[in-house]
C-alpha cells in the first residue's frame, strides 16, 4: 500500500511539470554528492517577466502563495516546502490557474542557497513557521542564526523578511535573533487586523477562527 501511495505521489509530482523548479526528495538532512552538483535555478528564465521575487518558506498547501501571485502580478513568487506530499497539493491547486508569476521548490530551507542565486530575493515570507518550542530544537526554527545567515546571502541589499505567527514566545525569540544577527526591525504588530491587504494562510485561518491574535513583524538587513 505504501509503495502504491508513493508511486501515486510520483505520478502527481510529474504532472506539476515546470511549476516545480526543483525537488530534493523527503528526508535528506544533508545533500548527496549528486545533489551538491545541482545547478542553481536561473531565476530570470523561471518566470515570464523579470521582476522582484518573493520567497515563501514553508508554504504548506500553497493558499498564501497562490493568492499573493494572483493579487500581485508585478511580483514573482517562489514557494518552498520540504514535504513532497504537501507541496504536491499546492502545485495541484495552482496548476489550473496558469499563474506565470508562481513557481514551487520542493527542497529544505537548509539548502536554499544551493538552488537560488545570491541576492536574487527581494522578500522572504515566513508564514506560521513551526515554532519548535523545545529549546533543544531551537536551531531548527526558521529564524535561528544559521537560517538568517543563509537569508542574508539570498536577499537583495534592500531585501526584507516578513513573518507572521500566532506564537508569542517564538515571535519574541525571533525578534531577538534578528537583532543579534544583523537585521533591523522596521515593523512589529501584536494583533494584525485582517485588512484587505492581508492574505490569510491556511494556519492563520484556523488561528483566527479560534480568536487568537496574529503577530507580524518586518525586518531589513542592517546597513553597517
Ligand atoms: C505550520 S506549517 C505552515 C504552513 C503555511 N505557511 C500556513 O501558514 O498555512 C509549516 C510548514 O513549513 C514546512 N517546513 C518546516 N520546516 C521546513 C524547512 N526547513 N524547509 C522547508 N519547509 C519547511 C512544514 O513542512 C510545513 O508545511
Set out the fold topology:
Blueprint: H1 2-15, E1 20-23, H2 33-36, H3 43-46, E2 53-57, H4 63-71, E3 76-80, H5 84-94, E4 102-106, H6 112-115, E5 121-127, H7 145-154, E6 155-165, H8 168-180, E7 183-189, H9 202-209, E8 215-221
Parallel strand pairs: 1-4, 2-3, 2-5, 3-4, 5-6
Antiparallel strand pairs: 6-8, 7-8
Helix pairs in contact: 1-5
This protein binds S-adenosylmethionine (SAM).
Textual characterization of the structure:
The protein has 224 residues and is α/β, with parallel strands linked by helices. It has one domain: Rossmann fold (3-Layer(aba) Sandwich). 34% of the residues lie in helices and 23% in strands. The protein contains nine helices and eight strands. The protein has an eight-stranded mixed beta sheet, with helices on both faces. α1 runs parallel beside α5. The longest helix is centred in the N-terminal third of the chain and has 14 residues. The site of S-adenosylmethionine has 20 residues, from α9.
Amino acid at each position: 500500500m505504501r509503495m502504491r501511495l508513493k508511486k501515486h505521489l510520483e505520478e502527481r509530482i510529474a504532472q506539476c511539470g515546470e511549476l516545480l523548479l526543483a525537488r530534493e526528495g523527503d528526508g535528506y538532512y544533508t545533500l548527496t554528492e549528486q545533489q551538491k552538483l545541482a545547478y542553481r535555478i536561473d531565476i530570470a528564465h523561471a518566470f515570464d517577466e523579470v521582476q522582484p521575487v518573493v520567497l515563501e518558506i514553508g508554504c504548506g498547501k500553497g493558499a498564501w502563495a497562490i493568492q499573493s501571485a494572483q493579487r500581485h502580478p508585478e511580483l514573482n513568487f517562489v514557494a518552498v516546502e520540504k514535504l513532497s506530499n504537501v507541496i504536491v497539493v499546492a502545485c495541484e491547486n495552482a496548476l489550473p490557474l496558469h499563474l506565470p508569476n508562481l513557481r514551487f521548490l520542493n527542497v529544505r530551507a537548509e539548502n536554499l542557497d544551493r538552488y537560488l542565486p545570491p541576492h536574487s530575493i527581494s522578500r522572504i515570507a515566513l508564514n506560521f513557521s513551526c515554532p519548535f518550542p523545545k529549546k533543544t530544537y531551537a536551531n531548527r526554527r526558521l529564524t535561528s542564526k544559521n537560517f538568517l545567515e543563509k537569508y542574508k546571502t539570498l536577499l537583495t541589499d534592500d531585501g526584507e523578511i516578513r513573518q507572521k505567527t500566532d506564537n508569542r514566545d517564538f515571535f519574541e525569540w525571533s525578534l531577538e535573533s534578528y537583532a543579534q544577527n544583523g537585521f533591523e526591525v522596521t515593523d512589529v504588530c501584536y494583533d494584525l487586523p485582517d485588512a484587505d491587504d492581508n492574505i490569510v494562510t491556511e494556519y492563520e485561518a484556523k488561528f483566527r477562527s479560534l480568536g487568537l491574535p496574529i503577530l507580524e513583524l518586518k525586518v531589513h538587513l542592517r546597513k553597517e
